[in-house]
Design a protein that fits this description.
- It contains 12 helices and 14 strands.
- The protein has helices at about 20-30, 45-55, 60-70, 70-75, 95-100, 115-125, 125-130, 170-185, 200-205, 215-230, 290-295, 320-325; strands at about 35, 85-90, 105-115, 135, 140, 155-160, 190-195, 240-245, 250-260, 260-265, 270-275, 280-285, 300-310, 310-320.
- Strands 2, 3, 4, 5, 6, 7, 13 and 14 form an 8-stranded mixed beta sheet that branches. A 4-stranded mixed beta sheet has the order 1-12-9-8.
- Strand 6 (about 155-160), helix 8 (about 170-185) and strand 7 (about 190-195) form a beta-alpha-beta unit.
- It is globular, with a radius of gyration of 21 Å.
- It starts with 18 loop residues before the first helix and ends with a helix.
- The protein binds S-adenosylmethionine.
């Protein structure tokens, strides 16, 4: 008799109400249709994003990692001694490792990410490499995070927001997030933020239209996720990945374009698509060093240093305490 054990896989219950369903219905009944990019990151989407970061065409990760590696000591020297490092949208924590390896002054690490599965898997690897670091992962939407773990209450804080995730916000939302991060991190905090720079449109185009089609899979996974979690009947093969640079707004736009006229059922609603109609799934705003510094300055942070290779930039910001106290 075989001694092999069979794992029983139980499908998670379908979510037909709740924030994901509400955001999907609101976005797909809006004109033009849109979906919030934070929903890209289920376990499958997070794994696809990791693959994107290794693509030849996707220069942002290569550039930012090189900047973080080369300037790790200078960046970490900005952090308050004995601090807790709070990373927003930590993903694989690969970039935090560069900073953590360059300084002994970080006592605790708080990775915050919306993808709990990915977060816990990566956080579990860290103690082996950083045995003296206290690690407090937080699985949540960082725009909704009301407070940091009680365990770091007595520590000074540094923030880390790499990956140009800040570029996924509309500029007014980016300003709101910077203020929110300032309130969470507290007086005297330092914030290291990775920001992709405006550049030749062909370089940008290639970064979001890779030859292997991984970015297309990442974009289309959103429809597969809606099918899996909300019981919708999207045919992902009837949608195409479109990504292009909107020079007027200095942003890459990602869309999913319906290849034909079709209807999709989601949570009891019927959503109609014209042939060629798109769902706008992501913006990725590109800044200049000066335009990002102006945004930070207007959002309660003083720019103190910047490192750049001309393609990407890493900014060190210090909380302008006089400006922020009125907000808290
Ligand atoms: C562009 S990826 C960057 C990942 C990683 N920091 C890097 O630099 O390679 C965005 C990351 O932020 C997370 N994320 C996106 N929106 C989020 C939100 N609203 N709240 C929390 N995490 C979010 C995603 O799960 C993903 O790990």
């Amino acid at each position: 008799m075989s001694r092999a054990r069979t794992a029983l896989r139980v499908a998670p219950p379908l979510e037909t109400s709740g924030p994901f369903a509400a955001d999907v219905i609101a976005g797909l009944t809006a004109k033009p249709k849109r979906l919030p990019p934070k929903y890209f990151y289920d376990a499958a989407g997070s794994a696809l994003f990791e693959r994107i970061t290794h693509l030849d065409e996707y220069y942002p990760t290569r550039s930012e990692l090189a900047l973080l590696t080369e300037h790790a000591s200078a960046i970490a020297a900005q952090f308050p001694p004995g601090c807790a490092l709070v990373e927003f949208g930590s993903g694989s924590s690969r970039k935090a490792r560069s900073l953590l390896g360059a300084t002994a002054s970080v006592q605790a690490y708080v990775p915050v990410d919306i993808c709990g599965e990915f977060l816990l898997q990566d956080a579990a690897q860290l103690p082996r490499d950083f045995p003296h670091l206290a690690i407090y992962p937080v699985a949540t939407d960082f725009t909704q995070l009301a407070e940091l773990p009680a365990e770091i209450a007595s520590l000074p804080r540094a923030g880390f927001f790499p990956g140009s995730t800040i570029g996924n916000f509309e500029p007014h939302e980016a300003a709101r997030f910077l203020r929110h991060a300032g309130s969470l991190l507290g007086a005297g905090a330092v914030f290291a933020v990775g920001v992709d720079l405006a550049k030749a449109p062909d370089i940008l185009y290639r970064a979001y239209n890779d030859a292997e089609g991984v970015t297309a899979k990442f974009n289309l996974n959103l429809l597969a996720r809606i099918n899996r979690e909300l019981g919708a009947d999207f045919d992902p093969a009837a949608f195409e990945h479109h990504a292009f640079y909107n020079a007027q707004r200095s942003r890459i736009e990602m869309h999913l374009a319906s290849t034909r006229r079709q209807k999709v059922r989601i949570c009891g609603a019927t959503i109609e698509f014209r042939a060629g109609e798109t769902i706008h799934t992501e913006n990725s705003y590109k800044y200049t060093i000066e335009s990002f510094r102006a945004l930070a300055h207007g959002s309660g942070w003083s720019p103190v240093a910047v490192w750049s290779d001309g393609l990407f930039s890493v900014h060190a910001l210090r909380r302008s305490d006089a400006e922020q106290t009125a907000d808290e």
